């Protein structure tokens, strides 16, 4: 692979990030709402009286956040801040900075989604490969209907079902939060077990749904792979069934799945928003939901920008290393 190709792909990565970041800047402002006015008016309503000098306060805060500037100036400031990963202060949680709020929430989402995504990928692909293999145990054929059903159910819908059955009806698992209310987060065995106990239902909903999707995709790829010449030739050579299954069939069928896994890992920072909201999990998805509800421009822009960069970076890295995964792929001109 030439240095020129890597440089061109990196330029494309930068252009994609810039275009997506521009939409990220414009879309929250299309609503025409004033987040500062909404925040101050709601605080005044909670206090039961209209604060004197409310308009002056709104203007002062608009000046502080730069919202009184023309849109093009706000855009240039936005690009400068995003290039330095400086996401400004949160409007709805002032004086907290967006980067601090994200730093608190991202580990929760990453721990939940990275583990569940990898587990769903491994279990689903193994299950899908076995369901398509002719010499696999016959009882695996009965798993096809439930796997198809799981692959079609949205994360949040299965989460609601699990909350009702195991949280509300049976009372086995907690229904809300990332840990017991009133607990101070500390790295102690008791707190870690408490977090794991609260994570069971959201993790189970994500694993079951993603497992179904991976299994269906892997089964389709395995069916296509079995008719390839290299598999037929391996069978004609008299190789062991396990060798053909692992080295010839799975290895080649897994390549498109690896591509999808890289893109899925790139979206981990975003979190599974509705799952985190349903379970009250203190991840980045819940923070993003709160930012959207409060029209918090800077909070939404910061989270979405990190998602854009992570997806673009995952795609860029995958594009570079794909020839290493599959020697048949080359970017050299013949």
What's this, in brief?
The chain is an all-alpha fold and 334 residues long. It is built from 13 helices and no strands.
Q: Tell me the major beta sheet.
A: none
Element-by-element helix/strand order: HHHHHHHHHHHHH
CATH class of the largest domain: Mainly Alpha
Provide mean pLDDT, rounded. 78
Number of strands: 0
Please estimate the helix content: over 70%
Q: What is the CATH architecture annotation of the largest domain? A: Orthogonal Bundle
β-strand percent reads under 5%
CATH-wise, what's the superfamily of the largest domain?
A: MetI-like
> What number of domains?
2
Molecular structure report:
The chain has 334 residues and is mainly α. It folds into 2 domains: 1-92 and 295-334, no CATH class; 105-293, MetI-like (MetI-like fold, Orthogonal Bundle), CATH 1.10.3720. The chain contains 13 helices and no strands. The protein has helices spanning 3-26, 35-47, 54-65, 71-83, 98-132, 144-152, 155-169, 189-225, 229-236, 241-266, 273-279, 284-293, 297-325. The two termini are 13 Å apart. The model has no long low-confidence stretch (mean pLDDT 78).
